[in-house]
Amino acid sequence: MSALYTWDVFSTLDGYGSFVPGADWGGYWSKQGPELLEHRAQQFAVDQRMVFGATTFRENVQILGLGVDHEAIDPWTVAMMNHPATVVSSTLGDTLGWPDATIVSGDAVSIVASLKEKSPVPLRSQASLTLNWALMAAGLVDRLQVTVFPVITGRTGTSPIFAGLGDVDLELLESRTFDGRSHEFVYRPTPRTG
């Protein structure tokens, strides 16, 4: 049986995954709350393997790396670092201190297809836009989990989360509201061809 692959991504209402340096938004666009953080902690409390592209992996190492006080970071992000990780990269030479990471070079679609066949635990990718655009197009993403924060960043938004995708049909599987403001949608994606 093939392991379930979830692409987990944060977004503004207008579809951006980040904001320009100097924009005064803060983490989660300053819209996190206890319900969201508890839900995230529960999602990362189960066995799973993380899958990253090189850019997101480097960003996570900066946030979670050596010398960072893990007491000051949200528990789900610390839990993420404690899961084994596969990093698809042709540019990284080592794991940058991530405890249980493997760097794999090559075609991302082939690498993840093999992981799905061999992994005894579900696979989860947090952000990693370019990697997941390719995997979505290849039909390897089983679940698209989008957490939408109630802001519009038309002037300061960067990293449009779906800009590199083709057309995709989405079947809504679950939806939740956290802290009366943020929404999580879980979809089954089906890439459209032709």
Category by helix and strand content: alpha/beta
- Rg is 16 Å
What is the assembly state of the chains in this entry?
single chain
Q: Describe the sheet with the most strands.
A: 8 strands, mixed
Number of strands: 10
- Which segments are poorly predicted (pLDDT under 50) over 5 or more consecutive residues? none
Our count of helices gives 5
Shape: globular
Query: Helical proportion?
Result: 10-25%
H and E order? EEHEHHEEHEHEEEE
Instruction: Give the integer mean of the pLDDT values.
Output: 94
Q: Largest sheet, order of strands side by side? A: 5-4-3-6-1-7-10-9
Describe the structure.
With 194 residues, this protein is an alpha/beta fold. Helices cover 25% and strands 31% of the residues. It contains five helices and ten strands, in the order ββαβααββαβαββββ. The chain has helices spanning 34-43, 54-64, 75-81, 108-118, 129-137, and strands at residues 5-12, 16-19, 49-53, 85-88, 101-104, 123-126, 143-149, 157-160, 168-178, 182-191. The strands form two sheets. Strands 5-4-3-6-1-7-10-9 form an eight-stranded mixed sheet. The longest helix is centred in the first third of the chain and has 11 residues, at 54-64. The mean pLDDT is 94.
